[in-house]
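Hello,

Our lab assistant flagged a job as stuck in the queue for most of the afternoon. It eventually completed. Since we weren't sure the result was trustworthy after the delay, we are filing this so someone can double-check. Below is the sequence as submitted and the structure that was eventually returned. Let us know if re-running is recommended.
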Amino acid sequence: MALALAAYLEDVSLPYELLDGDEIRSGLCSDLGFSKEDRDENVRRLACAAKLLNGRGVISIVAAISPYRDARRKAREMCESFIEVFVDCPLKTLIQRDTKGLYLRALAGQLEHFTGVSDPYERPEAPDIHIDSGSQTEEESVAELISKLRALQGLPKAPRASKEKRLSA
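-- returned structure --
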């Protein structure tokens, strides 16, 4: 979904940066593990990076698991244009979609501190956008996300040819 949103922002010529949680963990946050404290620090660093980018007029797409409400609240306080997107999906569907096999490994006890399996995930109480990806195709979820972002932020519509090209890719 984050990649599709990035493609949309590219289509409408808006400056953006995709802050991918896995990529950030291998660089900026490589010193962090997966304890609650480290996860909270990871979210804080992502929020700091997003705030700096936003200050330069760059839209930040933060694609990361943020399992704790308090860390998300603090990130919202740091960033003026914070929009919390909750991508909701049942565990059974996540397992079916998991191309890396991480959920099966976590369920077998081979991965510690795995969000939603051996570590908690505190569902947002009032996310700005709630996407029920378990009952939708990826294309439907992306279309809903972009529609809701357009309503919240007044984003322009993508040129028709670019939109069709992106959804067929």
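-- support follow-up --
The delay was a queue issue, not a problem with the job. The result is valid. The two ends are 13 Å apart (CA to CA). The chain has eight helices and four strands.
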